[in-house]
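sorry for the late reply, my laptop died twice this morning and i had to redo everyting from scratch. anyway the thing you sent over, i finally got around to it. pasting the sequence first so we're on the same page, its 209 residues, then the predicted structure underneath. double check i copied it right bc i was rushing
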Amino acid sequence: MRKTNRYNMEQLSDAVAMLRKGGLVAVPTETVYGLAADAENSAAIWTLFEVKQREREKAFSILVTGMDMVERYCENIPPVAYALAEKYWPGPLTMILEDKGVVSALVNDEGDTLGVRCPDHPMTQSILQEADVALAAPSANPSDLPSPKTAQEVLDYFDGHIEGIVDGGPCAMGVESTIVDLTGDEPVILREGGIPAQELLDFIREHQA
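ok and here's the structure:
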């Protein structure tokens, strides 16, 4: 059993240090709590799969500070991705882009695409900026159980099994991000979440015209 630390606003550097050491730290977003690991650390990603009891074939998306960080991890980024980021980030939008091969191959099952999202929560933004690395951060629940909206719900799932949790209060939105795949000829909505699918498609068509 691990000791699961509970971090507040003044202890974010401790959370960053734990992530840098390869630990798992749950972090708040505007949608649900995510279970974060250093996206470039294969050992940490492997532990993430084990703790979440998740099939290896299911890819993780990554949390980033913005498009500057996306450029470190993705290539052949279409112009519409920058327009979407300007309008919807930070916020509940995950974009699927072409992977550059910088994250651990475990993150996307050695695939050639990568999901990226910039979360709208000041504590998690601070962690990302200080860590200066993308975080693989699926929802902080065992597979097939409800996504947690409070730190206590995360603890109920994982106390003693993860290194820490950043307590950012209840998540404002409580639903997952909308996922749009931008790697093909036409955008494809893979999951509707915090942003209505039709609104997103209308915006993309407007900016691709």
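The CA atoms of residues 150 and 169 lie 6 Å apart.
thats about all i looked at so far, will dig more tmrw
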